[in-house]
Design a protein that fits this description.
Blueprint (H helix, E strand, L loop, with lengths): L2 H13 L24 E6 L14 H9 L17 E3 L4 H22 L8 H30 L3 E6 L6 H10 L3 E6 L19 H5 L5 E9 L4 H9 L4 E5 H9 L4 H10 L4 E7 L21 H13 L3 E8 L7 H22 L4
Parallel strand pairs: 1-2, 1-3, 3-8, 4-5, 4-7, 5-6, 7-8
């Protein structure tokens, strides 16, 4: 951080009132910091072109930004976390435009598949598939380059999606900095499909794509409650790299008298010291995210998820990056975006705490 940025940050910390009225004209959470002044930078990814059921996650970054100014900053884990500086990059309009441009083509493509069409026998559908794949790869590559830029500057990076395909760029960028880390995946789905719907960067293929990164030593999936036969086989074929805490097994354990703490201990013990958290909002109970793209009954309560994240921070894990994805505003956007803003602040807080940024 340059000298003038350090001085500006110090001035802002001394004059900012963390107990004041939320500044809706400011950056994320109403904080006064620029990305140059912040230790934590959040990348918005308004992209949901691979959403296979309900779209809307592309609006997630804007809606969470609007709601985030109502977040209170005191946190028992790290009361002064805000002083590290948290800011979000400007939402990229060119990505929004590209997403809108492809929406109708995606609808035609998905309608074709859902009616039993064979992509390989239809040149028009092949062309649409290739266009989607090219656009998705372009967005993810751009996010990777931006992530590398901030990581090189010594920043800590999080991502706000968007569908679950978007974090791949950030995760790839982290492999340049860390050669050994694990991923905690809070999710309703396994996301281990190989080219779901023939799309290379599908939201349902994010963890399949992550498996190709040798630096990711372990993926621990929590709250999973809907998988395909293909995904179950992939889990069984990779016992050293994939550990799954299925929702049904978690709830059965709790119903039979075990504590959530004991389950969190098992989750924690399966993760290496350095951890990336990928948080699909549909990992929570649907009442917390009713407008997300593919809601599934069951899931973690908000309190269970926050306890788990805190547990990692208190038990010698260092959070090296994170994402929050699949937040969609829908008709009751206040519920979706308000809960998402609190999750986002928690993720930023544990990264600040475990990296001793304040």
């Amino acid at each position: 951080m340059q000298r003038k940025d350090i001085q500006s940050k110090k001035n802002k910390i001394s004059t900012f009132n963390p107990s004041g009225v939320g500044d809706t004209s400011g950056n994320i959470f109403g904080l006064p910091f620029t990305t140059a002044e912040s230790d934590v930078v959040i990348l918005p990814a308004p992209w949901d072109i691979t959403a296979s059921y309900r779209s809307g996650a592309s609006q997630g970054p804007e809606e969470v930004l609007k709601s985030s100014s109502q977040t209170n900053f005191f946190n028992h884990l790290c009361p002064d976390a805000w002083k590290a500086g948290i800011s979000m990059e400007e939402i990229p309009q060119h990505v929004i435009n590209l997403n809108k441009k492809l929406q109708q083509k995606v609808k035609k493509y998905r309608h074709f598949l859902q009616n039993g069409g064979n992509v390989y026998k239809n040149k028009k559908m092949i062309a649409i598939r290739d266009e989607i794949n090219e656009a998705s790869a372009s967005v993810i590559n751009e996010l990777e380059l931006i992530s590398k830029k901030f990581l090189t500057e010594g920043k800590y990076v999080g991502l706000l999606g968007g569908d679950h395909s978007t974090p791949l760029g950030l995760i790839r960028a982290l492999t340049d900095k860390y050669n050994d880390f694990g991923i905690l995946q809070i999710d309703a789905h396994g996301d281990l499909c190989d080219h779901f719907e023939e799309l290379e960067q599908s939201h349902a293929s994010i963890m399949f794509n992550v498996l190709s990164l040798k630096e990711v030593k372990k993926i621990v999936q929590v709250g999973i409650r809907e998988i395909s036969h293909e995904e179950k086989q992939r889990m069984d074929d990779n016992p050293e790299r994939i550990e799954v805490f299925h929702n049904q097994e978690i709830k059965k354990s709790i119903f039979e008298g075990n504590t959530w703490k004991s389950i969190c201990e098992k989750i924690s013990s399966n993760l290496p010291e350095k951890v990336y958290i990928t948080f699909d909002i549909d990992g929570l109970e649907p009442s917390n995210c009713p407008s997300t793209g593919t809601p599934v009954p069951g899931g973690l309560t908000y309190d269970q998820a926050m306890y788990l994240i805190d547990f990692l921070a208190k038990n010698d894990h260092t959070i090296i990056g994170f994402d929050l994805v699949e937040v969609a505003p829908g008709n009751i956007k206040d519920i979706n975006s308000i809960i998402a803003a609190r999750v986002l602040f928690k993720l930023a807080t544990v990264m600040i705490k475990t990296n001793n940024l304040v």
